[in-house]
């Protein structure tokens, strides 16, 4: 039995050996049908970060090409070997290759997943009942958040800043870890109390979301060839996350709430890597 282990992180997969490029997709089906078919086929090999389908360029023959990103390089490799030159959902065999083009430096650096992507990945490998989160504290830290901020004396803006500490619990593996999230925004005082109330609720939610992401980023999933999953939690010995008096802890990792909306659409904005390995 193959017990080779593959380590999966709760980070955006940017490695080329986790990316499949698929072409020779015929125009006999709709783009939506092709997308659903690819999701069905490739999700059977492992968790997917991204599936994207695009029509061929106008100078090429009618049809589509697709990009599939896995979190696991081993699963991507197995999927490539198993589906290359197979018809799958059409009458003409597909061509499937692992990407080999080098990513730009800014793409090769590790990026955080969105909260939704973290939950999808956890559900895939740990099960819906295999993990939970608990809010330790959510606090308004606007008054102790002067570092890095200097509003003009005549400014009509008011800085709102919330911090959150969340505990991530994986009961079947006996693992717990905590994450810190901070969200901030300047509110126009002239817009009235309703605007401020809405912003407070929004900032509290996104501070929690970022804390959940930070906790997941400490988790390593060790997936064996037989499908079993082990879990390790990376800890920083110098990190102290108390239940109370969190002001000093929560003055780090500042982020505007607007960045969260962009994070949810991160997979739509990443440049494509459309070079493949022709040696297979």
Automatic annotation (TrEMBL):
Instruction: Tell me how this protein assembles.
Output: Homodimer.
* Classification via CDD domains: RRM_RDM1
* PANTHER family associated with the record: RAD52 MOTIF-CONTAINING PROTEIN 1
In the UniProt record, does the keyword Nucleus occur? yes
Q: Which InterPro entries match?
A: DSRM_RDM1, Nucleotide-bd_a/b_plait_sf, RBD_domain_sf, RDM1, RDM1_RRM, RRM_dom
Q: What is this protein called?
A: RAD52 motif-containing protein 1
Q: Which UniProt keywords apply?
A: Cytoplasm, DNA-binding, Nucleus, RNA-binding
Recall the GO molecular function terms of this protein's record.
DNA binding; RNA binding
One GO cellular component term, please give it. cytoplasm
Cell compartment(s), UniProt: Cytoplasm; Nucleus, Nucleolus
Going by the entry's taxonomy, the superkingdom of the source organism is recorded as Eukaryota
| UniProt cross-references to SUPFAM superfamilies, sorted A to Z | dsRNA-binding domain-like, RNA-binding domain, RBD
**Annotated RRM domain residues:** 18-101
């Amino acid at each position: 039995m193959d017990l080779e282990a593959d380590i999966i992180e709760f980070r955006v997969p940017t490695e080329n050996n986790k990316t499949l490029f698929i072409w020779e997709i015929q125009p006999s089906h709709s783009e939506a049908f092709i997308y659903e078919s690819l999701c069905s086929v490739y999700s059977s090999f492992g968790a997917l970060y991204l599936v994207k389908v695009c029509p061929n360029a106008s100078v090429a023959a009618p049809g589509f090409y697709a990009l599939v990103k896995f979190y696991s390089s081993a699963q991507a490799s197995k999927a490539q070997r198993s589906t290359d030159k197979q018809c799958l959902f059409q009458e003409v065999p597909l061509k499937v290759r692992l990407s080999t083009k080098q990513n730009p430096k800014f793409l090769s650096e590790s990026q955080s997943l969105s909260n939704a992507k973290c939950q999808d990945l956890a559900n895939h490998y740990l099960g819906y009942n295999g993990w939970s989160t608990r809010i330790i504290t959510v606090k308004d830290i606007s008054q102790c958040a002067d570092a890095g901020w200097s509003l003009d004396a005549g400014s009509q803006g008011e800085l709102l800043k919330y911090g959150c500490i969340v505990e991530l619990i994986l009961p079947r593996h006996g693992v717990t870890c905590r994450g810190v999230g901070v969200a901030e925004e300047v509110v126009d005082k002239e817009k009235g109390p309703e605007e401020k109330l809405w912003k407070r609720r929004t900032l509290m939610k996104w501070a929690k979301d970022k804390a959940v992401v930070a906790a997941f980023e400490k988790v390593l999933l060790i997936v064996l060839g037989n499908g079993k999953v082990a879990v390790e939690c990376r800890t920083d010995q110098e990190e102290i996350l108390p239940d109370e008096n969190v002001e000093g802890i929560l003055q780090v990792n500042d982020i505007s709430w607007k960045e969260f909306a962009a994070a949810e659409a991160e997979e739509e904005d990443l440049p494509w890597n459309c070079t493949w390995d022709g040696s297979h």
